[in-house]
Input
Amino acid sequence: QVQLVESGGGLVQPGGSLRLSCAASGSIFSINAMGWGRQAPGNARELVATIISGGSTDYADSVKGRFTISRDNAKNTVYLQMNSLRPEDTAVYYCYIDHGDPYQASAFRSWGQGTQVTVSS
Output
């Protein structure tokens, strides 16, 4: 029912920049938060950045000062601007939305398919 379409991944040199986009569509009653996680081979998934409906943001310590999350409410789209990229940022990046239907007292976290980000010279 919920579709998350991601774009913007690819290969970039250390110190470079990349912007990821994720557009949500489908049967979404309300969005409480949108965000990004990442997972490198052999590692657990790490939450990278979150933005809630009111606009407050939260970042993992590893990306603070380098990554910026933003949203376009009219388009149900979340972005992740990644600057000063490092090889250790290499991972599959996933977007997610927290959504629910208060009339059914339900809440969900839906994830996108992921997009590969590779930082290498």
Q: What stands out?
A: The longest strand covers residues 91-101.
